[in-house]
Model the fold of this input.
Amino acid sequence: MVRVPLEEEYDIAITGGTVLDGIADSPFPADLGIRDDRIAAVGDLSHADAGRVVDARGKRVVPGFIDIHTHSDISVMFHQPMLSMISQGVTTQVVGNCSLSMGLARPEAGFEFERRWLQAHGVDIMWKDMEQHLDVVRNSGVATNYVTLAGHGTIRKRVMGLADRAADRSEIEAMKRELVLAMEQGAWGLSTGLEYTPSGYANLEELVGLGTVLRRFGGIYATHLRNEGDALLEAVHEALLVGELARASVQISHHKAEQRQNWGKVRQTIRMIEEARNKGVDVWLDQYPYTAFMTNLSVQILPRSVLSGTNEALVARLADPTARRTIVSEMLAAHPDWEDASEDGFWGRVEVTVSRAHRELQGRTIAALARELSKPPVEVALDLIVQEKNFVAALNHAISEGDVEFVLRHPLTMIGSDAIGIGPDGTTGEDRVHPRCYGTFPRVLARYVREQRVISEAEAIKKMTNLPARRLGLTDRGVLRVGAFADIVVYDPNAVRDVATYAQPHRPAEGIDTVIVNGRIVWERGQWTGLLPGRVLRRNA
Ligand SMILES: [Zn+2]
Done:
């Protein structure tokens, strides 16, 4: 009998696996058929024709992970494959967080901070607004889908530069117009970074004013709180107040309590959040599954007053002996324990990670450097900031494991890496990044699901897929059903694990077998396939 060649029913069939669709509470066996960029069938496809069959026997088939909190707008111009992201199963990233959005930065003075990130990799800003930025990203290509927030700090710079003061009424109106424009051009919300300048100069009136714009567009208010340590409760109170007064939907970013004396406060903050929800405030959380945070060293240690103004002014202040003496005594008065150079003290937990002029310092603690140089640790840290012109990042091992588990268990919490999409080769491989860049999602599945049983696998998948999709209003993603976009991860539930460590962060996770974005395979057999099928998703498209 002659077999008539039929046109294949599916471009890709994923067969023999068990599915967690982002909604169901337990896995069920089903095959998936993909045609073009969508899921065309869910069921028994054992007799179907497909151009390509992915054998998923013994594997889990789930929606692609939606990373609700990343900074990959920084790297999208020099690292389109987003290796650290696709290798852990991320198919959609929300960028522009913590008040900083490249899409609203401009190629001119005042935006040095944003430009330094790009210039270190030989690129510069080549857009004037969000519309142009999103066009550039679309044209240059990206491996994951791309959802952007408008950064409050970047908007504030467009209107009032680095002015260290509250905005007046006309300035608030000008910022609102900037936000309206960004939302019309495709942003999905606003991000604040109230621990950073200039976002931190905003008062409640400014934040509520901007929040009312979000309400109009249905965008989210994602906030890196004003403080995540000693003043955590006050900072959460402020975020909830913005949500209540502006009637905006609040996303508390990378929720945690920093430093030992604050551990356990997340129990109070979550109670505050639940009470706010009972009053009608729409508020959610995200988290990365690690006990160290990482950011600019200066933000971690310098008093707010010292951080103001331009970067050059900050560095000059720290280099001036008289100003320096005043700053050091202010720091030590607030933190008497900062004299301690032992590994058990504060500085023993602060580990240099990105020091481009002095790579040999990466991985050393400030305490160790202080002992080696026979200098007070505060002076060592300030010297480093001066030498690196304030372009130095550090890990801070200051979060409790118990808090991580408590926040993860809460049904309002979704997963966000707070990472930048990068790769192990070339310039991005030289920075000692946080292991969350490569390990966030597999670590939840390995450590917190399989090993510690903090949450179930189905709950974890919801937090990584359907919850953030509904949160954003992303239709047809974060779920496996006929008609949805084919953003899919196939992983081995017994083998999936993060292998990136603080000492060796550039290591892709294990057990993530196949990653599909918009119906195209981007990651298989431990490798990028060379495709860039990610789409720029515009809120108002
Ligand atoms: Zn942040």
About this structure: The longest helix spans residues 169-184. Residues 98, 193, 224, 253-254 surround zinc ion (CB under 6 Å).
